Amino acid sequence: MSGSAAARRSSNRPRRFSRPVAFGIRESLRLIVLGSGSTGNVTYVESGPANAPTRLLIDAGLARAEIDGRLVRAGLPDDPHQRRARLAAVDALIVTHEHDDHLGSAATLGLPIWATGGTQRAADLASETLYAGRAQRFGAISVEPIALPHDAAETIGLVFDDGACRMGILTDCGHDAEEVAAQFAGCDVLVLETNHDLSLLRRGPYPPSIKRRIASDQGHLSNAQAASILAQIARRGRLPRVIIAAHLSVANNDPRVARRALVEVAGPEVEILVAGPLGAPAVTLSDGHLTVERPPAPPPPRGSQLSLFEPVPEPR
């Protein structure tokens, strides 16, 4: 997929993150996958003092109005009397790479944008620059970009650290490289790509050229490769407490198959969630206590409607 023209030459001025962080009154580090898959990827991360939390958006693969609505349903302020609400409450947008299911509506959100130099050039995107391997401080959260093998100009995964816990996003990665797995060791929560089951991909509906791209070392992680990443992490210490299987292909995977592959490595002690196009439950970690939040779905206006946080069944 090519970079979206809508994301070119954003004029948003970057916000500076120089305010002191009162770690003694820090809120939990919180991560919510708002959307996952080829229809659009968006994740929300928050930490910091209760009176001034740091709020980050990762990727913008959905339309502005859709992101705004999902943020409200995820618990961001929606009071017209508050000074900042919804998208305006977010401090920065980090774009992992230029493919449309990640870059999408970036320039329409009115947020400061951060991306690697490769992504900037590929998408003609005006943004602040992130560097793989060099942590960037956003208020209460330190964000480390991790270089990933993928067929985009300069794709990154991300590790978030607020001084008490670590959460990672590892999607759009072509293979189970040891150097990649090492960077995500020690994460308490990990969003991990399980894009396809190789046998389903082989007999699936895609043209041979697309199948080769997906299965290549610059494509996407299979269920088996994701399980290999976890095994490598386990050999380096401990597994994450929560794993969110993400970026599942509707045509080439099944949530039950993906989950089973991860459970075989992680065992029953690790909670495994599956994110779909409508997202996944929020995960928070505070003082060592982990909570998976499953808010009730908004009532459907008519007929049946999927909850924002319910995994979507994937056809074989």
In short:
By secondary structure, the chain is of the alpha/beta class. Helix content is 21%, strand content 25%.
Q: Topology, pairings included?
A:
Elements (H helix, E strand, L loop, with lengths): L25 E10 L6 E8 L4 E5 L5 H10 L18 E3 L5 H4 L9 E4 H7 L4 E3 L5 E3 L2 E7 L8 E6 L4 E5 L7 H6 L5 E5 L4 H5 L5 H8 L7 H13 L6 E5 L8 H12 L4 E4 L7 E5 L2 E5 L23
Parallel strand pairs: 3-4, 4-5, 5-6, 10-11, 11-12, 12-13
Antiparallel strand pairs: 1-2, 1-14, 2-3, 7-8, 8-9, 9-10, 14-15
Distance between the termini: 24 Å
Sheet-strand content, in percent, reads 15-25%
Q: Number of folding domains?
A: 1
Low-confidence stretches: 1-11, 13-26, 301-316
For this structure, the CATH topology is: Metallo-beta-lactamase, Chain A
Gyration radius, in Å: 18 Å
**CATH class designation:** Alpha Beta
Kindly describe this structure.
This protein is of the alpha/beta class. The protein has a single domain, classed as Ribonuclease Z/Hydroxyacylglutathione hydrolase-like (Metallo-beta-lactamase, Chain A). 21% of the residues lie in helices and 25% in strands. The chain is built from 8 helices and 15 strands. It has helices spanning 64-73, 100-103, 117-123, 178-183, 198-202, 208-215, 223-235, 255-266; strands at 26-35, 42-49, 54-58, 92-94, 113-116, 128-130, 136-138, 141-147, 156-161, 166-170, 189-193, 242-246, 271-274, 282-286, 289-293. The chain has an 8-stranded mixed sheet. Strands 7-8-9-10-11-12-13 form a 7-stranded mixed sheet, with helices on one face. The longest helix has 13 residues, at 223-235. It is globular. The chain starts with 25 loop residues before the first strand and ends in a 23-residue tail after the last strand. The model is unreliable at 1-11, 13-26 and 301-316 (pLDDT under 50).
